[in-house]
Each structure stands twice: as C-alpha cells, then as structure tokens.
C-alpha cells in the first residue's frame, strides 16, 4: 500500500516538474499565456465576453510578445500542436482584426439590429472575413502562428504558406450587395446537406432568396424540388471540392456548383489548401499538386475568376469557434482536429454578410428520422458523427439562434415516417 502511494507521489512529482520545465521552455515565446482553464462556459449563449474588446483598434490584435518590438522581421520559432495536450489559451486568443463596415445597412429587420443581449455581446459585425496579400505581414504571421489550423498557422513554415498568401488578391467588392430594386435588405438562404431536406419541397422557397449559399456535396440536379437549383456562394475546402466527386458521384454530383457569376469561398483548413491556392493563382493549366491531379481551376467548371474568389481569414474562423462553437472536446487530447463544420462556417459567413438568414438542411433535434445526406433518398442512412466536429453543439446552436430570432432554421413539424420499415 505504502509503496503504491509513494509511486503515485513520485509520478505526480515527475509530472509537475516536467510541466514546469515545459512552461519555462515556452515562456520566451510569449510572456503571457495561460492554458485554457475550463472556466469559459461552453456555448455561445453563455460566453463571458469582455465587452471592452468591442471598440479596440486593430493594433491591439498584436500579441504582447511582439508589440513591444517596433519592427519584427523574422518568423517566430515554430510551435507544435503535439506540445499541447489541450487547446492552448493565449490572452490574445479572443482579439480579432476588424475591417471598415462593408456598407451602411438600410435594412430595418437586419440581424445586425438584433436586440438580443447575448448575441450583441458575441457578434462582431465587422470582423475581418478575408485573408489577402495586403493584410498579412510579419507581426500578423507571428500572432497567427500561435493558433492551430484553420484558426492560425501553428506548425506551418512561413515560406510554405506565404508562397500562396502573397498571391491572394484583395477582394474588389464585398461578398454580397443588396439587389437593385429590392427592399434594401440582403436575404440569404444557407443550404446544408442534411437528410431533413429530402421530401421537403422547399426548393422554390430557397431559390426565392437574394442569395443562396451551399457547401460540400451540394448536388442540386435531380433534387431541385427539395433543395432549389441556384447557388450564389459556394463554400469549400480543397478536400471537400475534390472528395465530393467520390462521395457524392453516385448521387449525381459531377462538379461544384458553377452558376454564372458565382462566388467561391475557400476555408484554408490545412497546408493542402495553401498548395491548392498557389496552383490556382499561378494559373498554369498544367499545375497539379500533391493532393489533386489537375489545375485547381478546372474543378470550378469554367467559373473560376480571381475577382470572385475569397479566402476566409483565420481570425474569422477562430472567432466563430471561440464565441459560438467552443466545444468541450477542445480540452481533450485530440483538441487540434476539433473545429466547426464547413456548414457552420458557411452559416456564420452568411450571418456576417446578409441581413436575414434562413438555414435549410442543418441538423435538428429530430435528425435521427432522416438520412445523413438529403441525396440519400432511397435508403435510410444513419447520421455519422466524426470526432473532429461537435455536431450536438452545432445542432443546439442552430436551434438557439432560431429561438433568438437571429436565423430562421428549417425544422419539420409533421411526423415523418420515412422508409424505416421494421426488419
Ligand atoms: C515539441 O514538439 C516537437 C515536435 O514534435 C518536439 O521535437 C519537441 O521536443 C517538443 N517540445 C517539448 C517541449 O515537448
Ligand atoms: C500588419 O498588419 C496588421 C493587420 O492588417 C496591421 O494592423 C499592422 O499595422 C501591420 N503592421 C505593420 C508593421 O505593417
Ligand atoms: C425521401 O422522401 C420521400 C418523399 O417524401 C420519401 O418517400 C422517402 O421515404 C424519403 N427517404 C428517406 C430515406 O427518408
Ligand atoms: C432553376 O429553375 C428555374 C425554374 O424552373 C429556371 O427558370 C432556372 O433557369 C433554373 N436555374 C438554374 C441555375 O438552373
Ligand atoms: C507550367 O507547369 C509546367 C509543368 O509543371 C511547366 O513545365 C511549365 O514551365 C509551367 N509554365 C509556366 C508558365 O509556369
């Protein structure tokens, strides 16, 4: 008994000492970091926000460790994801670059005018949405290198990432503008891929919006009655645009949506996305990369255009996670793969570029009644939960946003018997 106790004591001692050594070895990187303490309540509705963040100038987004130096010319030493057993919490984690407001809104019913206290606290209407060659520099690089991808550049080499970032053009226009002759509001539908849309017959309702966002395996041909046929904004990653052919090919997916004038938005989730961008912008028809076999532009079916291509900013992605979708899984060993879904990022992009947002095909409480994807019409599949996403948290967040009248979430009222026959 006594030897067991002393072994445990020795073990704890060794752990404590190594932890202290780890802290000391990291301290030169930043004088002020604290490990995610778990004191943050989970879920955006209870986020203990420091309201003082609101009015801060961009320069406060520079971490303390570099802001004291007038000119920073070199990338900081690499931080490794494997050195952290849970999400590291830096004191500048919840500080973000903001841009000038894209446009004055003339829309009285805009979600920007919501009086919901929790939403007002969490929502940054002018959060920087897009990364481009003119809004990156060495202090930005070093600040963002504290956060794992897609929330920053942790463990990435400066030259590898900058080879493509320095090619990303500054967007010439906001993602969306009010439609001429409309009511001054930007009305958006965001269409997820969930099975709830099968048999919904909301296609015409979706298409009636000013803009329609879709993501991932957004098959419309053959499903128009339920999901509509228009796509104005397609949100994707290198992985989703290349893998969708294999995953959804048998359901009719041939290529990413390519409506005339469509806007493409890339979530730079991994190094392969930066390689993709490099090939895309270099415009060399024969440029293929390690993760794809042809020029990336060919995946956009003739609609790729530099002026209509947007790359989401790490600050925006981190803000969505921190303020709205902070999963308890970020405290687990596999924290580094935990991130919101592409659908979640698309929905939040709409919340920051539209006045009204109607969400269709997102997960609802009764998800078990439906297939995983709406394209799975003829066989009832089960919804798959991957460890890198917190689907329950997302589901509850959509419902909460709906209840607070920030979005309108498509939910089905009628009992749906589906094809679940007793076996
Ligand atoms: C951090 O991770 C790197 C790469 O895996 C490793 O070489 C290094 O020893 C680790 N540092 C500490 C302090 O554990
Ligand atoms: C670097 O970029 C940030 C964000 O765009 C900006 O606030 C800052 O002033 C820039 N710093 C330098 C030294 O140019
Ligand atoms: C899809 O919708 C159709 C029409 O409502 C229905 O007959 C079918 O059972 C549904 N499929 C599944 C898998 O729920
Ligand atoms: C969508 O459907 C409508 C009505 O059937 C049709 O007029 C329109 O051309 C279609 N749009 C696309 C992009 O296929
Ligand atoms: C385009 O790529 C091919 C194959 O990698 C290469 O041989 C060629 O020189 C490149 N052309 C330009 C203009 O970069």
TrEMBL record:
The keyword Transferase applies. Pfam families: Glyco_transf_29. The keyword Transferase applies. Its EC number is 2.4.3.3. Pathway: Protein modification; protein glycosylation. Its main location: Golgi. It is found in: Golgi apparatus membrane. Residues 1-25 form the signal peptide. The lineage of its organism: Eukaryota, Metazoa, Chordata, Craniata, Vertebrata. GO terms for molecular function: alpha-N-acetylgalactosaminide alpha-2,6-sialyltransferase activity. One of its GO terms (cellular component) is Golgi membrane. It catalyses: a beta-D-galactosyl-(1->3)-N-acetyl-alpha-D-galactosaminyl derivative + CMP-N-acetyl-beta-neuraminate = a beta-D-galactosyl-(1->3)-[N-acetyl-alpha-neuraminyl-(2->6)]-N-acetyl-alpha-D-galactosaminyl derivative + CMP + H(+); a 3-O-[N-acetyl-alpha-neuraminyl-(2->3)-beta-D-galactosyl-(1->3)-N-acetyl-alpha-D-galactosaminyl]-L-threonyl-[protein] + CMP-N-acetyl-beta-neuraminate = a 3-O-{alpha-Neu5Ac-(2->3)-beta-D-Gal-(1->3)-[alpha-Neu5Ac-(2->6)]-alpha-D-GalNAc}-L-threonyl-[protein] + CMP + H(+); a 3-O-[N-acetyl-alpha-D-galactosaminyl]-L-threonyl-[protein] + CMP-N-acetyl-beta-neuraminate = a 3-O-[N-acetyl-alpha-neuraminosyl-(2->6)-N-acetyl-alpha-D-galactosaminyl]-L-threonyl-[protein] + CMP + H(+). GO terms for biological process: oligosaccharide biosynthetic process. Disulfide bonds join 188-354. Belongs to the glycosyltransferase 29 family. It comes from Oreochromis niloticus (Nile tilapia). It is a single-pass type II membrane protein. Keywords: Disulfide bond, Glycoprotein, Glycosyltransferase, Golgi apparatus, Membrane, Signal, Signal-anchor, Transferase, Transmembrane, Transmembrane helix. This is alpha-N-acetylgalactosaminide alpha-2,6-sialyltransferase.
């Amino acid at each position: 008994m006594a030897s067991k106790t002393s072994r445990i004591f020795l073990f704890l001692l060794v752990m404590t000492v190594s932890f202290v050594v780890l802290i000391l070895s990291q301290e030169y990187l930043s004088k002020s970091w604290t490990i995610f303490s778990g004191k943050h309540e989970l879920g955006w509705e209870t986020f203990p926000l420091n309201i003082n963040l609101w009015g801060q100038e961009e320069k406060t987004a520079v971490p303390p460790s570099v802001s004291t130096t007038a000119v920073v010319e070199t990338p900081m030493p690499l931080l490794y994801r494997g050195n952290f057993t849970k999400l590291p919490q830096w004191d500048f984690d919840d500080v973000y670059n903001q841009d000038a407001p894209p446009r004055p809104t003339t829309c009285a019913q805009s979600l920007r005018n919501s009086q919901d206290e929790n939403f007002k606290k969490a929502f940054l209407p002018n959060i920087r949405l897009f990364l481009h060659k003119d809004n990156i520099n060495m202090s930005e690089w070093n600040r963002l290198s504290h956060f794992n991808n897609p929330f920053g550049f942790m463990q990435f080499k400066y030259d590898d990432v900058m080879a493509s970032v320095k090619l990303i053009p500054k967007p010439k226009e906001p993602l969306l503008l009010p439609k001429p002759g409309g009511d001054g509001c930007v009305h958006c539908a965001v269409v997820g891929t969930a099975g709830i849309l099968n048999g919904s017959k909301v296609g015409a309702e979706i298409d009636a919006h000013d803009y329609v966002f879709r993501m991932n395996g957004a098959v419309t041909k053959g499903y128009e009655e339920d999901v509509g046929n228009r796509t104005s904004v397609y949100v994707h990653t290198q992985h989703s645009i290349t893998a969708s052919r294999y995953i959804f090919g048998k359901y009719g997916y041939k290529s990413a949506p390519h409506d005339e004038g469509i806007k493409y938005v890339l979530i730079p989730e991994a190094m392969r996305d930066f390689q993709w961008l490099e090939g895309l912008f270099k415009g060399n028809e024969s440029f293929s990369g390690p993760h794809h076999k042809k020029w990336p532009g060919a995946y956009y079916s003739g609609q790729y255009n530099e002026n209509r291509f947007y790359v989401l900013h790490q600050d925006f992605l981190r803000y969505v996670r921190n303020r709205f979708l902070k999963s308890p899984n970020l405290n687990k060993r596999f924290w580094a793969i935990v991130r919101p879904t592409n659908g979640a990022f698309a929905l939040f992009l709409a919340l920051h570029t539209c006045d009204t947002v109607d969400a269709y095909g997102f997960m609802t409480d009764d998800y078990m009644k439906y297939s995983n994807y709406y394209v799975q019409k003829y066989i009832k599949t089960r919804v798959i939960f991957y460890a890198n996403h917190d689907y329950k948290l997302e589901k509850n967040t959509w419902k909460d946003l709906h209840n607070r009248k920030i979005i309108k979430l498509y939910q089905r009222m009628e009992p749906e018997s589906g094809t679940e026959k007793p076996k």
